[in-house]
Every structure is written in structure tokens, then in C-alpha cells.
Design a protein that fits this description.
The chain is an alpha+beta fold. It is built from 14 helices and 29 strands. Strands 5-6-4-3-7-8-2-1-10-13-12 form an 11-stranded mixed sheet. The longest helix is centred in the last third of the chain and has 30 residues. It starts with a helix and ends with a helix.
Length: 680
């Protein structure tokens, strides 16, 4: 009886204090890392975790989530996850290109534009329809053009984009539960930042989100917004699980010089404001400054001094952080961190990353070309790399020449290949490439360009089309130039610092190059190893368009080809003074490849009155010729030019003016004669 009374007392105390026992937490973290190139890399992470018995059962049994009693978790996003059978979701909106040679590897890598990949629960019967409904819902949530994602740019890779959360091998190895798509031309602006900030518990009223002003964010060299939802372990032993939502924001800002020529920086200078209020709903609010190699503060000093210094790892995995507790620092006035350099920044040789990938388009003309990918391995050991290409259907690939190499004889093994179907499905090319130590290899994919219909071209067709970024996945032997050492942790600090853990809660790939190069296993974090997922740069290319241009008598060019033709076509289609009808002439590749027949608008005046009016004109003009139009050759196609329904020609207008003047004179004479009679 005493034990029951104690449990009841604890439960009642929870109800009195918070209304219910808290089962969710919210943390906010900021990492500031001065880069070797002189730029400043800032990475925000706002993490919301939620655990209930219903969520635990859904994670263990791969069922749909059933949320209730929302507190810190955003309800707008939770309803989408609950309705569309989502288990794991990753969405990124990026503006700019990450420079891997200068900046190393980011904490969260994302290609330019929009990228979305989702793992669904096995409970969905029609996964394609669920995917279409999901992208439309997310499009409205983040105010992005995700509704342009359809079957032509959606794929299901076999080895890339494995689950980053809890997943068993039978589920992680079945790519039919996964969908991936990218929109490389998607622009990121404040209309995306505003709904993203509204998902935070404190919005932008307090906490680290006060630093998210649009002007410094969208004037940066690189800017990325992301949403990551996954089931993960609650502790190191993984005895309990929870649902984790991470809202991340990364930006790289250019170096700023002070009056003395030093590259000093501060929170006020980077984000145009300083911290004033703390988020009362956050259980942790911290700022980390990377001082690796500057533990003795000989390069730059920090004001105020950090609360603690955290050091971990050794050699390439050495991490030294200056930690600030924002909740304790904001007990009084505003909080600002200032870094003052003791000397000018010296631009030396930047150490190259262990693996670097560059992609470009070769060829000339508008008939064909080649996508060339260059892999550079600067390490002392060979690497197995998973290379993924998602290409649109209007690029015709040649598979028999897709394995052309330069200066190497390393084999390539295709793990999955999906050929394109016109206007229905794009290309999926996924291969495993073996890169020897200290070498560079090239892989080329030859293609030809298709001729599209005129409605399928973008508004600025001469600007070109964007190809989505390629994806490179590998396990690096050393964490050199790597910003994150672990993908299994929930907090930013645990991801960044190096720990020797053996956690088997993340399923990724390990490729053994050979005839059967497809295998998965439960990932165990090894010493001096790091998983690497990289998105290459997007590519811009042009498609061939109509070259031959004829005049009005024959076929006419597409309206985007020349400015003067565009003007005449616009006048013909959208003019208000006559009607135009279009008649097809040949194929349907271009709508303007036909003829515009201009139809005369019938006059509403009766035939008898027109005859009388014409006779009057004949007598007034004498023997003047009525019709001055030149008769065209009978073999040529006649173009009927419409006449104005009010005035058939300019001469009629003159005749009407003369008639009006005569009537005025006659009326004046009549009035004068009447006045004369009265006087008499």
C-alpha cells in the first residue's frame, strides 16, 4: 500500500507541475568553425525527441505512428508523418555549392536545390500514390516547389541512401520502401525559412533561433535548410528508443576584415544581432567554437572566455571545442561572442580531402555529349565508392560506352540500372567503383539530347536544363577534413567529437567489390573510420532546338528562337483587334510549326445598307477605283487580313466625315432660313 501511495504521489506531482509527465525534449546547439580558407562555417541544430509507448511499438513493429497530445513536436509536421506512412524522412533546401577542396566535409552534406528521400512503413498498399500525396503536403508545409516531383524524377536506389535510423536488415535491404527525388533548380528564399522556423517550439522569439535573420543568411556563400526525421536510440546501450526530429541550418560566410586587416568575427557581426532571451522550453542551449590547433589561444582569443574546453581524439580525429552554456550566460544582459585574431590570416596550402569528386559535361554542339566524373583518392589505401546518377529521360545514355576510363583498369560493377521511358521514367545508374590508392580515375557516360515539345521547355530555354547532383557514398579510413565522426548520436557535440564506441543501431552499406557487389551489414563504428555521403555539383546543359526559320508563307519557328519572330507570334496569338485560328501542319514537336489563319470578322450591318453605302461612295468619288488590294497567286496560300468592323477602310472614314460636315451645313442653312422668315 505504501509503494502504491508513492507512485500515485509522483504521478500527481507531474500533473500539478506540467500537466503530465514530460516525454519529449528539445535541445538547440550552434557550432562555429573557422575554416582554413578564412571563411566561417556555422551550423545550427534544433533537435526534438519524443518517446511514448505508442511510438515505441510503432518503431519496433514497423507500423504507422499514432501521435496524440502534441507538446514540443510540431503538429503540422506530425500529421503529415502520421497520415502518409513515414518512418524516416530527410528534406534539404540548399542555395550555393559546398567547396570540398577548400572547406573539407560538412556535418550535413546537401546538393544545390531541393532533395527529398523517404523510407515508408510496409503498411502502405499503394506506395507511389502515397509518395505523390506526401510531396504535395510537404510542398505546402515548407513553401517549396516539391509538387514538381513526379515519376520522371523519382527513383529507388539499391545501395545509396540507406536508413540512418533504427532499421533491421530485412527492411534496410529492401529499396522498394524508399523513394528519392531531387529538384536542382529549386531556389531557396525567406518564404522557405519562415515556415521552417515556425516548426520550432520557441519560433524566433527566443533562444538560438533569434540569430536566424534573413539578410546574413541569404548573403552567405552557402546556405542549407534541412529536416531530418528518424527513429533512434535514447541512450548508448539502446535499451529504449525515441523519435528524433532535427532541424539543421548550415551557412558559410566570407571572411570579414577589421580596420587592422585581421579577420575578426563576432555573433553580432555574423548574424546582425546578439542573443537576448533563452528558450524556456529547451533543456540544453549551447554554442561550440572549434579551437582545434588553438587551444593555447595563440591564433585568436575569445571574449568572453568559454565555460569549459572539451578535447577528444588524437591525430586526424583531434577535436577541441570551446563550450558556452547560453542559459547560464543569459542570466543578465545580452550575450555576444567575439573572436580577435592576433595577426593577419595566412593563406597557405589547404590539405586536400581524402576523397574528392568532380563532375562536368564534355562535348560540343547540341547533338550529344558526355557526363564525366573524376574520382581522386589521396589516401594510401584503396576505396570502394558507390556512385549514383539520376538523370532525366530526355538524355539518351549509351550503356556500351559507360565504362570508359582514363589511366586505370579498375573495374566497375553496376548494382542497379533502370532505363528511361519517354515522359514516364528517368534514368537510374548506380555502380560500385574501386579507386586505387593515390590515384585519379574518370568515368564517362555518353548521351544524346532529345527534341522536346514546346511546352516541355522551361521559360528561358536558352539558359539550359539542370541535371541533379550525383551521390557518392564511401567509408573513409581516416576522419581527415571530416566535420562529423558519428551518425548515430542525437546531439551535435556527440556527432562532432570522436568517441570509440561500438553501437549497432545504424544500418549502412559495406561494399565488397566483386561479381556479387551488393551486401549490407549492421554498421559498427570502428576506430579511425568515418562514413561519407557526398553530393556532387549540379550540371547545366542545353537541348537542341529548331534551327531552320521560314517566313510567313511556310513553317514558322518556335517562339523562343528569335526575338522578332517571338513578337510577331505574340501579336498573332494575343492581339485584340482580330481573331486567329491555328491549323496544325506536320509533327507536334513545336506548336508554332503550322499556320495562323486570320479570319475576317463579319460586319453586323445589313447587306442592303452596305450596298447603299457603297453606291454613295462610288458617286462621291467619281470613277475612283474601289479595290486597291493586290491579287495573290492562286498557287500560294492566301492570308486573309481582317478588317475593322466599324470602318472598312480609311476612305470610308473620310466619306463619313464629309457627310457629317454636309449635315451640319444643311442644318445651319435651315435655321438661318427660318429666322429670316420670322423677321419678315
Amino acid at each position: 500500500m505504501g509503494e502504491f501511495a508513492g507512485v500515485l504521489l509522483v504521478f500527481l506531482s507531474c500533473l500539478v507541475v506540467t500537466g503530465r509527465c514530460r516525454d519529449d525534449t528539445f535541445t538547440e546547439e550552434l557550432l562555429i568553425r573557422p575554416l582554413t580558407s578564412g571563411h566561417i562555417y556555422s551550423h545550427f541544430e534544433f533537435t526534438t525527441t519524443w518517446t511514448t509507448p505508442e511510438i515505441t511499438r510503432s518503431i519496433d513493429q514497423y507500423r504507422d505512428f499514432e501521435f496524440s497530445h502534441y507538446d514540443l513536436f510540431p503538429r503540422a509536421f506530425g500529421e503529415i508523418v502520421e497520415r502518409y506512412h513515414v518512418r524516416e524522412l530527410h528534406l534539404s533546401l540548399t542555395q550555393g555549392l559546398w567547396r570540398h577542396r577548400k572547406w573539407g566535409y560538412p556535418i550535413v552534406d546537401a546538393p544545390p536545390g531541393a532533395q527529398l528521400w523517404v523510407w515508408f512503413n510496409p503498411t502502405s498498399e499503394n506506395l507511389d500514390q502515397t509518395w505523390r500525396d506526401l510531396v504535395n503536403a510537404l510542398s505546402g508545409l515548407v513553401c517549396a516547389s516539391l509538387n514538381f516531383i513526379d515519376s520522371t524524377n523519382t527513383v529507388s536506389p539499391e545501395l545509396s541512401y540507406r536508413p540512418q535510423g533504427l532499421a533491421e536488415e530485412w527492411y534496410a535491404g529492401n529499396s522498394s520502401y524508399m523513394r528519392y527525388a531531387a529538384l536542382p533548380r529549386e531556389n531557396v528564399c525567406t518564404e522557405n525559412l519562415t515556415p521552417w522556423k515556425k516548426l520550432l517550439p520557441c519560433d524566433t522569439q527566443s533562444g538560438l533561433s533569434m540569430l536566424l535573420h534573413p539578410v546574413p543568411l541569404y548573403t552567405a556563400h552557402y546556405h542549407a535548410l534541412s529536416l531530418h526525421l528518424r527513429p533512434s536510440c535514447k541512450d548508448v546501450s539502446c535499451s529504449s528508443v525515441h523519435l528524433e526530429l532535427t532541424q539543421a541550418l548550415s551557412l558559410v560566410q566570407g571572411p570579414t576584415l577589421s580596420s587592422s586587416g585581421h579577420q575578426d568575427w563576432s555573433l553580432q557581426q555574423l548574424f546582425s544581432t546578439q542573443l537576448i532571451y533563452t528558450c524556456p522550453l529547451a533543456s540544453m542551449s549551447k554554442i561550440y567554437v572549434d579551437v582545434t590547433g588553438n587551444r593555447d589561444m595563440k591564433k585568436f582569443t575569445l571574449d568572453p572566455e568559454p565555460d569549459i574546453f572539451d578535447e577528444s581524439g588524437s591525430g586526424p580525429s583531434l577535436r577541441q571545442l570551446a563550450v558556452y552554456d547560453v542559459q547560464a550566460a543569459l542570466a543578465g544582459d545580452g550575450f555576444n561572442i567575439e573572436a580577435t585574431y592576433k595577426s593577419r590570416h595566412i593563406y597557405g596550402i589547404i590539405p586536400s580531402p581524402h576523397l574528392h569528386v568532380s563532375r562536368f559535361i564534355t562535348g560540343y554542339g547540341q547533338e550529344g555529349g558526355s557526363i564525366t566524373v573524376k574520382f581522386t583518392n589521396s589516401g594510401s589505401t584503396s576505396l570502394s565508392v558507390v556512385y549514383l546518377e539520376v538523370l532525366p529521360w530526355y538524355l539518351r545514355l549509351f550503356l556500351h560506352t559507360s565504362h570508359s576510363y582514363s589511366h586505370t583498369k579498375s573495374p566497375v560493377y553496376i548494382s542497379k540500372l533502370v532505363t528511361a521511358r519517354d515522359r514516364e521514367q528517368g534514368w537510374l545508374y548506380e555502380a560500385v567503383v574501386e579507386i586505387p590508392a593515390s590515384s585519379t580515375i574518370e568515368l564517362s557516360l555518353d548521351f544524346t539530347r532529345a527534341l522536346l515539345k514546346w511546352l516541355e521547355y522551361p521559360p528561358d530555354a536558352n539558359h539550359g536544363f539542370y541535371i541533379p547532383a550525383a551521390t557518392i557514398s564511401a567509408v573513409l579510413p581516416t576522419p581527415r577534413n571530416v566535420s562529423v565522426n558519428s551518425l548515430t548520436c542525437s546531439t551535435l557535440k556527440d556527432k562532432y567529437i570522436y568517441k570509440k564506441l561500438k553501437v549497432n543501431n545504424l544500418v549502412i552499406k559495406n561494399i565488397e567489390v566483386g561479381p556479387m557487389a551488393a551486401g549490407t551489414f549492421v554498421y559498427k563504428q570502428m576506430d579511425q573510420k568515418c562514413f561519407f555521403l557526398n553530393g556532387s555539383n549540379t550540371q547545366l546543359y542545353t537541348l537542341k532546338m529548331r534551327e531552320k526559320i521560314d517566313e510567313w508563307e511556310g513553317q514558322r519557328t518556335c517562339p523562343w528562337r528569335q526575338g522578332e519572330k517571338n513578337l510577331s507570334c505574340t501579336n498573332a496569338l494575343y492581339g485584340e483587334w482580330y481573331e486567329a485560328s491555328y491549323e496544325k501542319a506536320g509533327g507536334d514537336e513545336c506548336m508554332s510549326e503550322g499556320r495562323l489563319v486570320l479570319k475576317k470578322i463579319e460586319n453586323k450591318e445589313s447587306s442592303f445598307s452596305r450596298i447603299v453605302h457603297r453606291v454613295k461612295n462610288i458617286f462621291k468619288r467619281g470613277h475612283k477605283v474601289e479595290n486597291d488590294c493586290v491579287e495573290k497567286d492562286a498557287t500560294k496560300e492566301q492570308v486573309i487580313v481582317e478588317e475593322n468592323p466599324l470602318y472598312e477602310d480609311r476612305e470610308d472614314l473620310e466619306d463619313i466625315t464629309e457627310e457629317d460636315e454636309d449635315e451640319v451645313k444643311t442644318s445651319n442653312k435651315t435655321e438661318n432660313s427660318q429666322e429670316t422668315k420670322k423677321d419678315r
